[in-house]
């Protein structure tokens, strides 16, 4: 960071009116803040951030300066060295508005080394995390999750001491062993069933008894909840977009269920319950309209399997279920335990790297039939990519992922990204036939999204970086997308027409002229325009989009709203 960038940061803070997730300011006029280590710990355990000493938040971020910047730099360095692991911060002093401001840039600590804490206090008392514009103490469970990430968890192979082999479903076990012996060569042909199941981590020993492992019980148990009552899925369907707000008949829930049983049964029954609370809608597939569920079944399956397979099964978390919440405008799935290993939220779906805290469970489900000929889990790191492809093919927005250390959340917006208005806009563009991923990306760019190669892959499910580059280049070559930056900083956004260059264009179609004439008396909705012009829905859609592209009209309101109005420009 240089002085110019620092000045811009202070101006941005003044405009925002408060600290934010990656910046903390402290007046520090009387010396070093005693809570400095908390901010360093918090930034290290999140996305990193910037500490500014010599700026007063309470006085509209006035630059008050520090008295002895050299001593303060030395003190900050000492505090960074007292952290575990030590923080390698960049510490500089700048002259801003005639005052000396000390700037400390704190990098994020690698996930496998968290929690970054004050060594003298230990991880349980000395760890903080950044939330909005403040720092908070990590909970005991959050510390436990982060410490577990430093080692290879073995919770899924722990013995279920009270259970016995008879608590497993003999038919499921038989089908599993049959597939194993058909696909794994001679290894399992030479041993009996019990020995094979122990080698596969379905069974283990405890005090000279053969008992199921937790993984074995969760996959093959007749009723695993006899021994682990909370290891199930809860599904709540709400009548409104906010939990706790009743529907028009006073109802709090449309559906409220707990789904028990082994994992394959839980997934199948959860999908059935969700579909019971879903509507069908028409989507465009090639040149055809196809009736599809609001959320594709493959997406539901992948999301539920991911939540059950990657959740935390430690003693801390066994009292927490996987939670599914269905609202009119979104579907939310939460599981205890954040991301494990070096995986970051921003890379989900962009590569096939796999990292799981429950390796034995994954391995077992890789050979467990789901009932439709597929296995429950592929264990190839492609589940989220397949989910993104299915959403792209259904013309829907990609999901939003949130990792809060103790909880991982995936949220699916119930919104058709490729609605009729967007499809009309896409057909008006001077481009060759588009792939489904290109259509999805253009629709998102139209709403203001700027893509990199990585975020394009994460949003569309395209796995190959070269394929993503080629598809983006095709859009650039067609003149509908502009490219900025080079190499690692390359970004892509939709080209916006310059109204000044097109406003005087006299070449209008007959339908465009009829629409402009109807708008001459004031703003109208699309339905009003259909009535005023006598044009059908598709003709009005197309005319509105071409007139918008020529800079003759603009939209007032949200694109998907039936109440949105169109008006002429100038």
Automatic annotation (TrEMBL):
Residues 150-413 form the Aminoacyl-transfer RNA synthetases class-II family profile domain. Pfam families: HATPase_c_4, SLFN_AlbA_2. InterPro entries: aa-tRNA-synth_II, RecG_C_sf, Schlafen_AlbA_2_dom, Schlafen_AlbA_2_dom_sf, WH-like_DNA-bd_sf. It comes from the Bacteria. PANTHER family: GLPR-RELATED TRANSCRIPTIONAL REPRESSOR, SCHLAFEN ALBA-2 DOMAIN-CONTAINING PROTEIN. This is DNA binding domain-containing protein.
């Amino acid at each position: 960071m240089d002085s110019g960038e620092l000045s811009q940061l202070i101006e941005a803070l003044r405009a925002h009116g408060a600290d934010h997730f990656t910046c903390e300011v402290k007046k520090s006029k009387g010396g070093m803040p005693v809570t400095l280590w908390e901010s360093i710990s918090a930034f290290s355990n999140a996305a990193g951030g910037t500490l500014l000493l010599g700026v007063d938040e309470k006085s509209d971020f006035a630059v008050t300066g520090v008295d002895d910047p050299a001593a303060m730099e030395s003190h900050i360095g000492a505090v960074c060295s007292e952290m575990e692991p030590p923080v390698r911060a960049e510490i500089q002093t700048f002259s801003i508005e005639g005052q000396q401001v000390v700037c400390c840039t704190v990098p994020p600590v690698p996930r496998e080394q968290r929690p970054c804490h004050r060594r003298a206090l230990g991880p349980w008392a000395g760890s903080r995390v950044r939330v909005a514009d403040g720092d908070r103490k990590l909970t005991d469970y959050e510390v436990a999750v982060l410490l577990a990430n430093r080692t290879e968890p073995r919770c899924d192979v722990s013995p279920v001491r009270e259970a016995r082999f008879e608590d497993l479903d003999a038919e499921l076990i038989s089908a599993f062993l049959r597939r194993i012996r058909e696909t794994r060569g001679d290894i399992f042909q030479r041993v009996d069933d019990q020995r094979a199941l122990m080698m596969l981590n379905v069974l283990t020993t405890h005090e000279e008894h053969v008992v199921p492992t937790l993984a074995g019980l969760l996959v093959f148990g007749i009723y695993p909840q006899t021994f682990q009552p909370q290891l199930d899925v809860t599904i709540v369907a709400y009548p409104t977009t906010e939990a706790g707000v009743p529907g028009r008949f006073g109802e709090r829930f449309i559906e409220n269920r707990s789904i028990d049983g082994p994992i394959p049964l839980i997934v199948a029954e959860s999908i059935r319950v969700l579909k019971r609370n879903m509507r069908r809608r028409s989507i465009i597939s090639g040149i055809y309209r196809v009736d599809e569920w609001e959320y594709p079944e493959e997406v539901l399956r992948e999301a539920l399997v991911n939540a059950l397979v990657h959740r935390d099964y430690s003693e801390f978390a066994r009292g927490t279920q996987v939670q599914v919440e269905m609202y009119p405008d979104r579907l939310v799935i939460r599981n205890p335990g954040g991301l494990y290993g070096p995986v970051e939220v921003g890379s989900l779906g962009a590569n096939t790297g796999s990292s799981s805290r429950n390796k034995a469970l994954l391995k077992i489900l890789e050979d467990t039939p789901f009932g439709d000929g597929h296995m429950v889990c592929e264990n190839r790191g492609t589940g989220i990519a397949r989910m993104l492809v299915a959403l792209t093919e259904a013309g829907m927005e990609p999901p939003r992922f949130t990792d809060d250390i103790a909880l991982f959340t995936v949220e699916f917006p119930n919104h058709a990204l490729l609605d009729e208005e967007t499809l009309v806009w896409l057909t008006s563009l001077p481009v060759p036939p588009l792939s489904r991923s290109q259509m999805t990306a253009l629709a998102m760019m139209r709403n203001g999204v700027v893509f990199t190669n990585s975020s394009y892959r994460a949003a569309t499910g395209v796995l190959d970086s070269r394929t993503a580059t080629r598809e983006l280049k095709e859009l650039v070559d067609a003149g509908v997308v502009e490219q900025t930056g080079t190499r690692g900083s390359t970004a892509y956004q939709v080209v916006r027409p310059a109204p000044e260059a097109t406003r005087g264009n006299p070449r209008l179609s007959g339908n465009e002229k009829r629409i402009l004439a109807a708008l001459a008396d004031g703003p109208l909705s699309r339905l009003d325009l259909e009535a005023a012009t006598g044009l059908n829905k598709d003709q009005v859609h197309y005319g509105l989009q071409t007139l918008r592209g020529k800079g003759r009209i603009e939209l007032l309101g949200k694109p998907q709203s039936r109440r949105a109005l169109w008006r002429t420009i100038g």
